[in-house]
Amino acid sequence: MDHFHYRDGELHVEDVPVRVIAEAVGTPVYIYSRGTFARHAQVFREGLEQAGDVHLAYAIKANPNLAVLRVLANEGYGADVVSGGEMRRAIAAGMPPADIVFSGVGKTEDELVAALEAGIGQFNLELEEEGHVLARLAAERGLTAPAVLRVNPDVDAGTHAKISTGKAENKFGVAISDAAGIFARLSGLAGLNLRGVAIHIGSQLQSLAPLERAYARVGELVAELRGAGHTITHVDLGGGLGVPYRHGDVFPTPAELGAMVARVTKDWGVTLMFEPGRVIAGNAGVLATKVIWVKPGVGDPWVIVDAAMNDLARPALYDAFHDFAAVRPNGERMTANIAGPVCESGDTFAMHREIDAVASGDLAVFRTAGAYGATMASTYNSRALVPEVLVDGDRFAVVADRIDPGTIMAAERVPDWL
Ligand code: LLP
């Protein structure tokens, strides 16, 4: 459920017309619903709590805006971070360092030190050498780093190849068959408390079956590690639950995930951790845009909008589908291609799609843009970085400014020898 709906013939976010925000802030602009973020966070928690003692670490990469993080901190969420920058955001937004998990296949020593000094709650190790380095850095500071080992369960998540992470050929984690040996070598080290395992097999999962297969393999590994004398208290089951981008698509609910987790993990006796991103953020945001032209094409007309691949990269990167809807639909439909102003043909949001009829000057939105939207934006073609707005009931605030090309240019230098 979300808080994006038509009232008096125009699209509102909670109680604010999209038109009002577009007039105040300009377009393109990301618009988020506080109530939707909070509700998704609550529904996920309620769904997973049936599995017992759970720790929820929102995957910041999905939407790292500070105001969004504050909403989730208020819901009791910690954070899954993958860089020093994300860690700084989580702490700045008020998330306790103890509730932060640090994932990522290429953490630098500087990042590990910053995380140790901040006192974060858990390091998810991606390879054996990282464990040795972390142990040394912690011991040098008189600290003990809580850590788990990320394993690669070699499961096909059944999602887009670019967002699959749990197949043997992916760069993530260590092979499950190597885990026991790595535990044996790392667990005695001063400075390291290797207390469990982690997995994450991919994103936008449409079925629970691959997750269940992966979790079952983790269960076998936990038993094997305990059999070898290791104390296992934490298992991080990652994120990955998908969301419907197309009207009518059906996805597993957090309650269904929770029921499966409860069944598969009932004898594990550990604290379970989850790293949901998209399921919290995806349907809590839209990208509002204005139609610049409707241009004749060879077949369908081209609807040229003022948002582009630099603002919302998912269609260009993954051929992703984002629903397009007029802010004030007139009841008519048209079949069109939708594209942005960027100078490459990849800057296309949809081809031969039936949409609300629109004309030059009309406002529209790309839906389900709350996750992996603004966070993946760039300034390609010297376009501005898109601003973000958070709505709460009948009020709204700009929570990220539009960064115009002048600001970007101010950080560039022409050396005096040119
Ligand atoms: N934990 C780890 C270790 C991850 O790598 C990810 C996502 C998550 C949690 C959160 O997954 P989620 O619940 O959001 O599925 N840019 C792509 C998605 C990349 C996902 C990367 N990892 C997209 O726009 O579809």
From TrEMBL:
Name the domain of life: Bacteria
InterPro entries given for it? Ala_racemase/Decarboxylase_C (IPR009006), DAP_deCOOHase_LysA (IPR002986), De-COase2_C (IPR022643), De-COase2_CS (IPR022657), De-COase2_N (IPR022644), De-COase2_pyr-phos_BS (IPR022653), Orn/DAP/Arg_de-COase (IPR000183), PLP-binding_barrel (IPR029066)
EC number(s) on file:
4.1.1.20
Q: Which SUPFAM superfamilies match?
A: Alanine racemase C-terminal domain-like, PLP-binding barrel
Alphabetically sorted, this entry's keywords are: Amino-acid biosynthesis, Decarboxylase, Lyase, Lysine biosynthesis, Pyridoxal phosphate
Residues holding substrate? 278, 314, 318, 344, 372
Residue span, Orn/DAP/Arg decarboxylase 2 N-terminal domain: 38-281
Q: Which residues carry this modification: N6-(pyridoxal phosphate)lysine?
A: 61
What reaction does this enzyme carry out catalytically? meso-2,6-diaminopimelate + H(+) = L-lysine + CO2
Matches recorded under CDD domains: PLPDE_III_DapDC
Which pathway does it serve? Answer: Amino-acid biosynthesis; L-lysine biosynthesis via DAP pathway; L-lysine from DL-2,6-diaminopimelate: step 1/1
**Top enzyme class:** lyase
Q: Which GO terms describe its molecular function?
A: diaminopimelate decarboxylase activity
Q: Name one Pfam family in it.
A: Orn_Arg_deC_N
Keyword Glycoprotein recorded? no
Q: Where is the Orn/DAP/Arg decarboxylase 2 C-terminal domain?
A: 31-370
Q: Where does pyridoxal 5'-phosphate bind?
A: 240, 275-278, 372
- Cofactor section: pyridoxal 5'-phosphate
The UniProt similarity line reads: Belongs to the Orn/Lys/Arg decarboxylase class-II family. LysA subfamily.
Self-association and partners:
Homodimer.
Q: What does this protein do?
A: Specifically catalyzes the decarboxylation of meso-diaminopimelate (meso-DAP) to L-lysine.
Q: What is this protein called?
A: Diaminopimelate decarboxylase
Origin organism is: Sphingomonas donggukensis
